[in-house]
Design a protein that fits this description.
The complex is a heterodimer of chains A (181) and B (365).
Chain A (H helix, E strand, L loop, with lengths): L2 H21 L1 H5 L8 H50 L6 H21 L1 H30 L7 H28 L1
Helix pairs in contact in A: 1-3, 3-4, 3-5
Chain B lengths: L2 H19 L11 E7 L2 E6 L11 E4 L10 E3 L2 E2 H7 L4 E5 L12 H20 L4 E6 L1 H12 L4 E7 L11 H8 L2 H8 L4 H10 L2 H18 L4 H21 L7 H13 L9 E2 L2 E2 L9 E6 L7 H4 L2 H4 L5 E6 L5 H4 L1 H17 L11
Parallel strand pairs in B: 3-6, 3-7, 7-8, 8-11, 11-12
Antiparallel strand pairs in B: 1-2, 2-6, 4-5, 9-10
Helix pairs in contact in B: 3-4, 5-10, 6-10
Classes of the chains: A mainly alpha (181), B alpha/beta (365).
Chain lengths: 181, 365
């Protein structure tokens, strides 16, 4: 697939950007934090780092999608011209053009979605998105919810686990009673 | 644009608007049933038999956790459930419900050896049958296979439909993508995995067809119908049927995190089930324990569960009475297409009926 070449180039570009960031601004962000508000500031730093990673993965994914769109548009035009040259048919109606467009876009994106680039983009985007979500939650819990004495998601999860284990135990006991009766 | 064209386009737009404004209420899953058992979010439904004396071996349908069970009873003329009932079978179905935060720790073991086992027990109790038929669909088929391996003494027949068993294939996009996903991060961050995120993945498998072409097709159909009363009635039915499917597609329950984690890691990534290495609460699932009659129903053009993922089941089990049926349709077409009603359902119910005669052992009432 021709647009894969473009995808490789865009991947390389974002890798270069990320490496450059990590060896320049990233180093400043990574500096150890001191003082009484160290813990909160450290979470803020980690959250910023997670956001940079997420934005980088997002931009990379969008770039890949953009390449696929461009390739699909190019192929659509090619197919329209081919049909006109070989069959003497040009899409004189909306439906005629739409059918060619739909067929070409679906096929091109199918190839794109099957590619290793998309699978790795998706995995990276999902992973960075989860890192950011987790980091944001921890940040909010630490610097807002706990000081305000509001229950946190972590505490609710602990409670949910307790409820789950109790229910499981109760069901097990009920089952044992049924079978021994 | 000529003024005639503008007027024509205006009338077309008005026709679309008219078709949607006039759509009366519609419902899904209308085959009469009663809830015979509940446990947490799970409900067990028993469909009211349509014949005086249904077959003595009841059928328990197990659908996937993703999306809702009522795709098997979407509307009266597109209903797998109704077809089975009309053919004299006694049908039950599990509705897994909508997991919430408190369910995030539920494991596959809880579903298979907990909810499913309790549902099977209830069906046995109510029907008086010692062994019942399990009819697993999609991921529900995978659970049914696990269950039949661990509790073969309770299962008389096992039927699976569009069921993934061998996950080591690159034929389907979900199989390709799932291999690289970090399930631990997803579950640790989300707890309960949002249904709309999973649904986005399904939509992405064929984005232009399902996000554009489907709607264009609907508008074209409405446009092509005549403007008289008959055409209006046809439009009403077209829109109602479309909206039923639309409701089902976007009715995506969230997923219990621990179940999702194990399903992605043990099934999609390590492919343990077909290797007889998958463990549920310390018990190994050995597919060779499956000796009961097996029917494996596959969609030739299924892009969510490709045939390569379903076919190996028959070779993996020890059943002697086993059959594979492959139909030229896709995943959803298996439940709601004309072919499903005309060809697929009758063949499944014939297979089940032939194996649902009087049980040797009776009664647990």
């Amino acid at each position: 697939m021709e647009h894969i070449i473009d995808l490789q180039a865009s991947h390389d570009l974002f890798e270069l950007w990320k490496n450059t960031y990590e060896t320049t601004y990233g180093k400043i962000i990574d500096m150890p934090i001191m003082g009484p508000s160290r813990e909160g500031a450290d979470r803020l730093r980690k959250n910023f780092e997670a956001m940079i990673n997420l934005n980088s993965a997002w931009a990379q994914s969008m770039s890949s999608f953009q390449s696929a769109f461009m390739e699909a548009s190019r192929k659509t035009q090619e197919n329209v011209e081919k049909r006109a040259a070989e069959e003497g048919v040009s899409p004189s109606s909306y439906t005629g053009y739409y059918d060619t467009w739909m067929e070409t876009y679906s096929k091109t994106f199918r190839e794109f979605l099957e590619s290793r680039f998309f699978a790795s983009d998706l995995a990276r985007l999902t992973s960075n998105s989860m890192d950011f979500q987790k980091s944001s939650r921890e940040l909010v819990e630490e610097i807002i919810l706990k000081p305000a004495n509001i229950p946190t998601r972590t505490e609710i999860d602990d409670l949910c686990k307790e409820v789950y284990l109790l229910k499981k135990k109760m069901k097990e006991l009920a089952r044992n009673m049924r079978t021994s009766a | 644009m000529e003024s005639a064209e503008v007027t024509g386009a205006h009338w077309k737009a008005m026709k679309m608007l008219d078709a949607f404004i006039k759509v009366p209420e519609f419902s899904v899953g209308t085959t009469p049933s009663e809830v015979v058992y509940t446990e947490d979010d799970m409900r067990l439904l028993h469909y009211i038999p349509l014949v005086k004396k249904p077959r003595p071996v009841p059928v328990l349908i197990v659908y996937a956790l993703v999306n809702r069970y009522y795709i098997l009873d979407l509307q009266p003329d597109k209903s797998v459930v109704r077809k089975l009932l009309e053919d004299g079978l006694d049908v039950y179905i599990i509705d897994w419900g909508y997991p919430s935060g408190v369910d995030r720790y539920l494991t596959i073991d809880d579903y298979v050896n907990g909810y499913l086992d309790n549902a099977v027990e209830k069906v046995r109790e109510l029907s008086g049958a010692e062994r019942i038929s399990l009819f697993g669909v999609c991921q529900g088929g995978t659970f049914s296979v696990m269950y039949s391996s661990l509790h073969p003494e309770k299962i008389r027949n096992l039927a699976t439909m569009v069921t993934p068993i061998d996950f080591d294939t690159d034929d389907g996009l979900l199989h390709i993508w799932a291999k690289s996903l970090d399930a631990d991060k997803i579950v640790d961050a989300c707890g309960i995995v949002p249904g709309n995120v999973l649904n986005a993945g399904f939509l992405l498998t064929d984005p232009f067809r399902v996000l554009i072409d489907k709607y264009v097709g609907l508008f074209e159909k409405i446009e092509s119908n005549s403007d008289d009363e008959e055409g209006e009635l046809e439009n009403e039915e077209t829109v109602k049927n479309f909206l039923r499917m639309e409701q089902w597609i976007f009715d995506s329950p969230d997923q219990a995190g621990e179940t999702y984690r194990q399903f992605i890691k043990d099934c999609y990534q390590k492919n343990l089930l077909i290797k007889n290495k998958m463990m549920l609460n310390g018990k190994r699932i050995n597919l060779k324990n499956i000796t009961m009659p097996l029917l494996n129903v596959i969609g030739e053009y299924d892009h969510l569960v490709p045939p390569a993922s379903s076919k190996p089941l028959n070779d993996a089990v020890a059943s002697t009475d086993k059959e594979t049926m492959i139909f030229p349709t896709g995943h959803i077409g298996m439940f709601v297409s004309g072919k499903s009603q005309r060809e697929i359902c009758p063949k499944i119910s014939s297979w089940l009926k032939a194996r649902s005669g009087k049980n040797s052992g009776r009664g647990k009432k």
